[in-house]
Each structure stands twice: as structure tokens, then as C-alpha cells.
């Protein structure tokens, strides 16, 4: 899953008025950011196999530290606590932790049964929505559009960057997703790892766009 996770980041902003969109992107996509680094380090393994599923030509062979349920819960706790410590925003910390954990459950829907419950677990989960392009598109686009809608309802632009920057970021995410789905398979596992690192730029863009937007006032609710 790709833009579905970013959709969660956008949508989570409505529940965490003091958190930046960049932080929520980081949380929702943290397991994949970590995965890309662990692939480059040779700690986790993936195989490129055209036709592995209709949508994604990848077979995850070993990714217990980024993509087991237990590890996801641990990362969720760690990032939630780190955010609470750094920002002193208890409500936002819960949302950050939930966004990190959401990644695993959404991956379960689309992946082949390759998601372990804990490192070394023989039980592997996955509902393989990736076997159907229409089902994958419907799920990810619904999450993405729903998330952007919640974000637009919760925030308003302060200036032109706040509106055009947001449109550019949303467009860029859709473009990358189209490239993922309809472009050629990745040339190597190393390439997957390095392209994965580029997602940090999307996190930075989240901080940048969000800094040019502010919370909309909701009647009866004090502005954070
Ligand atoms: Zn993932």
C-alpha cells in the first residue's frame, strides 16, 4: 500500500490539531521508511518477481522488524512516546501511535499472506487485495481521498503555498502511485531501498505545506 497510508496521515490531522502533517506522514508510513533502510542494510529481504500479484511484483521474504504485528506495536509505542516527550501533546501522541499501527493492518488487507505476527512467527497474514487492480485502487483511493477531505475540513491555507503546495503534494503522491502501479518493476532491491529513502522528502513536504495552513475554528471548540 502507498497512498492509502498517506491518506491516513492526512485524515489523522483532523484528530490531532497540534500535530504537523509531516509528523503524521512519518507515523503512517514509518514501517515502510524503516523497511527501506533495513533492505539497504541487508537486514530484511524482498524478492522481485513479476506476476507475484496482479499489482505488486514483490515477494517479502523476511521483514520481522519493520512488518510484524509485534514490531509495529513496539514502533507505535516508541513514536507515540517520543512525540509526547518532544511536543507535550498527549492527544497527538495517541494519534501518532495509532497512525503507526494502522500501517500494519492496512498492509494486511493488500499484501499476500507474508505479514508475521511476531519475529519468527509461522503465522503469516495477508488478504491479497493486490491480486485485483480494481480492489486495490478502490481501497487506496478511498483512503487517500477521504483523508484529504478530512484534512481540508480541519485546516485552511494561510497563504498561496498552503493551497497550491497542498495541491502539488497531493498531485505528486497520485503521480508516484500511478508510476508504482503502471510503471516497470523496480530494477533491483537496492533501487527499492533508495527510492524508499526519497519518501523522507514527502514527509518534509508535509511539514512545509502544514506550516502554511492553520486549523479551522470549529464552533464551540477552542483553537489548539
Ligand atoms: Zn508496509
What does this structure look like?
With 224 residues, the chain is mostly helical. It has a two-stranded antiparallel ribbon with strand order 1-2. A two-stranded antiparallel ribbon has the order 3-4. Helices cover 62% and strands 8% of the residues. The chain is globular and about 50 Å long. The chain has one domain (3-215). The chain binds zinc ion. Zinc ion is lined by residues 31-32, 67, 103, 107. Zinc ion binds at residues 31-32, 67, 103, 107.
Order of strands in the sheet with most strands: 1-2
Structural class designation: mainly alpha
Helical coverage, percent range: 55-70%
Number of domains: 1
Rounded to the nearest angstrom, the radius of gyration is: 17 Å
Low-confidence stretches: none
Estimated share of beta-strand residues: 5-15%
Principal-axes geometry comes out as globular
Bound molecules: zinc ion
Concise account of the structure shown:
The protein has helices at 3-12, 21-28, 30-40, 64-67, 69-87, 90-110, 133-154, 160-182, 189-197, 199-211, and strands spanning 45-48, 58-62, 115-116, 124-125, 155-157, 213-215. The chain is mainly alpha-helical and 224 residues long.
Amino acid at each position: 500500500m502507498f497512498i492509502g497510508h498517506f491518506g491516513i496521515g492526512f485524515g489523522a490531522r483532523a484528530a490531532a490539531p497540534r500535530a504537523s502533517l509531516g509528523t503524521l506522514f512519518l507515523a503512517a508510513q514509518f514501517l515502510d521508511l524503516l523497511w527501506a533502510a533495513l533492505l539497504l542494510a541487508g537486514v530484511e529481504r524482498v524478492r522481485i518477481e513479476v506476476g507475484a500479484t496482479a499489482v505488486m511484483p514483490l515477494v517479502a521474504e523476511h521483514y520481522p522488524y519493520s512488518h510484524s504485528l509485534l514490531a509495529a506495536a513496539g514502533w507505535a509505542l516508541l513514536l507515540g512516546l517520543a512525540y509526547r516527550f518532544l511536543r507535550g501533546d498527549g492527544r497527538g501522541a495517541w494519534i501518532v501511535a495509532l497512525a503507526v499501527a494502522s500501517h500494519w493492518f492496512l498492509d494486511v488487507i493488500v499484501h499476500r499472506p507474508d505479514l508475521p505476527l511476531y519475529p519468527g512467527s509461522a503465522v503469516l497474514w495477508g488478504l491479497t487485495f493486490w491480486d485485483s487492480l480494481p480492489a486495490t485502487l478502490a481501497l487506496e483511493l478511498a483512503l487517500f481521498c477521504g483523508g484529504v477531505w478530512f484534512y481540508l475540513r480541519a485546516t485552511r491555507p494561510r497563504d498561496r503555498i498552503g493551497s497550491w503546495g497542498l495541491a502539488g503534494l497531493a498531485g505528486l503522491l497520485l503521480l508516484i502511485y500511478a508510476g508504482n502501479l503502471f510503471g516497470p518493476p523496480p530494477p533491483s532491491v537496492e533501487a527499492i531501498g533508495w527510492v524508499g529513502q526519497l519518501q523522507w522528502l514527502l514527509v518534509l513536504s508535509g511539514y512545509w505545506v502544514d506550516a502554511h495552513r492553520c486549523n479551522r475554528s470549529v464552533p464551540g471548540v477552542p483553537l489548539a
